[in-house]
Amino acid sequence: MENALQYSRDNFDRSVTELIDFLKIPSISTNPESAPDVRRAAEWMADHLRSLGIQKVELMETPGHPIIYAEHLVDASAPTILVYGHYDVQPPDPLELWDSPPFEPIVKNGNLYARGSCDDKGQVFMHAKAAEAFMQTSGTLPLNVKYIIEGEEENGSVNLPAFLNEHKDLLAADVVVVSDTALFGDGVPAITYGLRGLSYVEVTLTGPDRDLHSGIYGGAIHNPINELARLIAGLHDDDHNVSIPGFYDNVVPLSDDERSTFASLPFNDQEWIEDVGVSKARTAKGYSVLEATTARPALDCNGIWGGYINDGAKTVLPSKASAKISARLVPNQTPDEITDKIRAYFEHNCPETMTVSVKDLHGGHGIVVNTDSPAMSAASQAMEAVFGEKPYFTRTGGSIPVVADFKKILGLDTVLFGFGLDSDAIHSPNERFGLDRFQAGIESIIRFMQIYSGK
Ligand code: BES
Ligand code: MN
Ligand code: MN
After folding, report:
1. End-to-end CA separation in angstroms for the chain
2. Residue 57, CB half-sphere, CA atoms under 13 Å: how many?
């Protein structure tokens, strides 16, 4: 293993150059025009894995973007890990807020800037580089590895559950390993043991059957924008609890133990407040920022539109008003249940002067994984060796819906072994990945593979 670690250090510059090539491909899964580029990214990664000497590498077709399946099986008596990641990225908009173009990666002050550098191409690539280090120094891997690298994570992984169901035997493993989450802070290692789920809807209120002159009709028309604003304002009470009936019915409460662990984590509310540029946090009454952003549910409006929004004034009463609304869920809320409750809220409160439609965009289950397992302890030892301190066990507010599916469909627990930072600006302009963390990730994965192999 020492040879593999040394190899990864000696070949670091080349690894960064290769990652830059991968990041140049604009694999935006939510954008239909990008489909050829999404496929090109899949082919690039598949070719790369082949070049490392991985035994079997295939692009497996789905009704959407292809899934890369790869495997390198060395010994039937050794454990098998299933590495999951995604090669698709979020759209880069708004482009004008990037300091350099999103698909022209550059290194600045030790960070690699590009869309996908952290989420998730850079983190997927760490797994390839860890495998390469073993292959080049010992001609084999210390355990059996299977990879599924998908191209639709940012689009809700819509075709992945069916894929898991169809390929249960192929995907048989002891544990899933995912590098698509964050450290607790710079240099502060963490293993994530909980993810939130998601319900995502688009709501449209329709009033008059066309836009109307606001001088001729204003005063006698119930305005859909005004009304949508009122309904959105009614989603929370004065203590910032969600006021949709039944929203909290199935929430597993935080235990006293978990709350005291949260309170002991080195999290500074004031730094957080300054970082996001607000004067004060707004959590549901009684909950800390860390609890509210990772272990309690949340409901937010993500976008709102209607009427006239271009330069200057146009005197118009809108026919329609729309909003995108998402809920972050915790165990045991389910996306269907919460989507139904959001729908019922809008339908029940829609005035008789207009109609409402609530479209289900996508969703996913939240999960809390078991922290007491050989794989977790191997991950913890690996991180401790690289970072010089034991990782904290933390929950994140983000969602990776397939993690719940791994448990439900394949019966597998997941180790969330991520090396991002919340400040890496994933999904935002100027997304970046610290090159020190890219290297620390490669070394942690090498150590994890060795320790978990039991050799
Ligand atoms: N890698 C993220 C999830 C994540 C974000 C983990 C922040 C830890 C911290 C993933 O790619 C993602 O963006 N997921 C989406 C959900 C998906 C259904 C679009 C999310 O959380 O919004
Ligand atoms: Mn991701
Ligand atoms: Mn993402």
Report:
1. 10
2. 16
**Given 337, 364, 391, which residue is the final one in a domain?**
364
Q: Other CB atoms closer than 10 Å to residue 384's CB: what's the count?
A: 15
Q: Ligand 1: which atom is nearest the Cα of residue 86?
A: 11
Q: How far is the CA of 399 from the centre of ligand 2 (A)?
A: 8
Q: How far does residue 208's CA lie from ligand 3's centre (Å)?
A: 38
391 shares a domain with 335: no
What residue's CA is closest to ligand 1, atom 19? 154
Residue 287 in any domain: the answer is no
Lining residues, ligand 1, CB within 6 Å:
119-120, 153-154, 156, 180-182, 198, 364, 396, 398-401
Q: Is the pTM of this model over 0.85?
A: yes
CA neighbor of 200 nearest in space, from 154, 251, 252, 151: 154
Blockwise average pLDDT, block size 10, the chain, 455 residues: 97 98 97 97 98 98 98 97 98 97 98 98 98 98 98 94 98 98 96 97 98 97 98 98 98 95 94 94 96 98 96 97 98 97 98 98 94 97 98 96 97 98 96 98 98 96
Pocket mutation for ligand 1, best pick of 153, 159, 183, 402 (most atoms within 8 Å of C-beta) = 153
Residue of 237, 320, 323, 247 whose CA lies nearest to 284: 237
- What are the residues whose beta carbons fall under 8 Å from the beta carbon of 429, sequence distance 6 or more? 92, 94, 95, 97, 98, 99, 102
Residues 310 and 437 in one domain: no
- Contact in structure between 119 and 90 (CB atoms under 8 Å): yes
Angle ∠(363,366,370) on CA atoms, nearest 5: 150
- Domain count for the chain: 2
Interval between CA 399 and ligand 1 midpoint (Å): 5
Are 373 and 413 within 8 A, CB to CB?
yes
Report the distance separating Cα 248 and Cα 245, nearest Å.
8
